[in-house]
Amino acid sequence: MEALGLSLPLIEPGDDLPSMILKAADQIGGLREGDVVVVSSKVVATAEGRVKELSKIRPSLRAKRIAAKSGQPPELVELILREADRILKIRRGVILTMKRGLICANAGVDQSNAPKSKAILLPRNPEKSAERLRLALISGAGARIGVVISDSVVHPLRLGTVGQAIATAGIEPVIDCRGKLDLYGKPLKITYRAVADQLASAAQLVMGEAGERVPAAVVREVEIELVERPKLSPKISPRRCLYSGVKL
Amino acid sequence: MEALGLSLPLIEPGDDLPSMILKAADQIGGLREGDVVVVSSKVVATAEGRVKELSKIRPSLRAKRIAAKSGQPPELVELILREADRILKIRRGVILTMKRGLICANAGVDQSNAPKSKAILLPRNPEKSAERLRLALISGAGARIGVVISDSVVHPLRLGTVGQAIATAGIEPVIDCRGKLDLYGKPLKITYRAVADQLASAAQLVMGEAGERVPAAVVREVEIELVERPKLSPKISPRRCLYSGVKL
User: Fold this and answer.
1) DSSP label of B26
2) Per residue in A154-170, pLDDT tens?
3) Closest residue of chain B to A178, computed from CA coordinates
4) Taking the domain B1-50+122-172+211-229, which CATH number applies?
């Protein structure tokens, strides 16, 4: 398996991201059948124009109250409240939220790699963005390509971020291992493998979080099932979650 | 970045795992300076003899009570209770626990890829195991090598497992990004990157969970800091954790 970073120019709202990815992929000999393109949610959202000028945001009373507690600008907190489906925790410097079935810091509203006084939101509909990107890449490359839109996520009791797939297109994001046998012919205890999340983490090893301008990567020669319509979702409802009801 | 699976013969208690890894690495031209060897905790524990015959375990009353609730064999639950530092949740088929600062299913006690009627525990001291393995690989390969002992972990609201580093040796497992600047010269919001966990996930894309006999991988050409003594740990105390106090 190989992961190759793609250097892109600075992305601006309205940019044609698929063309820029195809052009960047020329550096690695172009995209090939079965390649998975992992793209940071940040550049997808930026190209889609999901960039907000903070000075134009009118914070509510609630945003001001929470801002005092979290130590973030009230305008930023206002955006977070608008974007979040649920607030899980308010802590100095960060608000832990649920959004579209994902646990995420600040509802994905982020000032890093955003122009000064601006904040970037998550893509409005990441699944749609992933599918649009996939179709454009397939048409440009003339090969079947998988797409993962990735974000950075912190997990319980761990220091540091890993990659997580906020949406995928063209690949089965979870491998169903039920029925597979272990070394001794017994059915496996591990029933599903979160390959899309593993792809997002592998890609982040060659992508930059800072000013490196490597917001995408190609993962190739990996056993992955290309599909038109995935059967599984990497997201599960709180009710089905192993952690449900656990107070950490 | 490249991740290459290593096919190993069936590991038995007492086996010389470093020699077997070095031999398997011949298939990929041997280990090179800067390579990171990711090994499943399962084979490390097996070679160390951390294998228990279930029929020899006498379950306590508490184990029997929990076994009735979780639907697992009382002998297995007894081992889980002995291995766990804390029980977080009892659910049909799985007990969520804390062990050595990690959240893990069944305290790492696992029957998959174990001979029938046996269970494999986690390595007794994964950090020591990783360091021993590192020194043996360095001495065999004549090159500086990093080691990650990996396990499969499920994260909140996600379906499927990803890789997690339960111990590392010879690498800085977390990259401190504080002070780094983003595209626009502003300090980064993401302060740490959990590269050891990312390496574990990347490796799992080429490793098998089932009977594939690929319980290790070499990750090479990745920007990683080789160190004798890491400064950071990927584990944090519940008090410092972003999820602390959050009921999921």
Assistant:
1) G
2) 999 999 999 999 999 99
3) B210
4) 3.30.1330.100
- pLDDT tens figures, A166-197: 999 999 999 998 888 888 888 777 789 999 99
**Does any CB of chain B come closer than 8 Å to the CB of residue A229?**
no
Q: Give the separation between CA A47 and CA B3, rounded to whole angstroms.
A: 31
> Which single residue is written with the structure tokens 């998975």?
A36
CATH of the domain spanning A1-48+127-248: 3.30.1330.100
What is the residue whose two structure tokens read 């997002």? A200
d(CA B213, CA B232): 32
Return the domain boundaries, chain B. 1-50+122-172+211-229
Shortest Cα–Cα distance, A64 to chain B (Å): 21
Which of A113, A243, A244 has the highest number of chain B CBs within 10 A, making it the mutation to test binding with B?
A243
Interface of B with A in 52-71 (CB under 8 A): none
When the candidates are 3.90.1150.10, 3.40.50.300, 3.40.630.30, 3.90.1660.10, the CATH number that belongs to A51-121 is 3.90.1660.10
When CB atoms are compared, the residue of A197, A209, A244 closest to B190 is A209
- Using the Cβ of B171 and the Cβ atoms of chain A, whether some distance falls under 8 Å is answered with no
**If phi over 0 gives left and psi between -120 and 50 gives alpha, with beta otherwise, what is residue B126?**
alpha
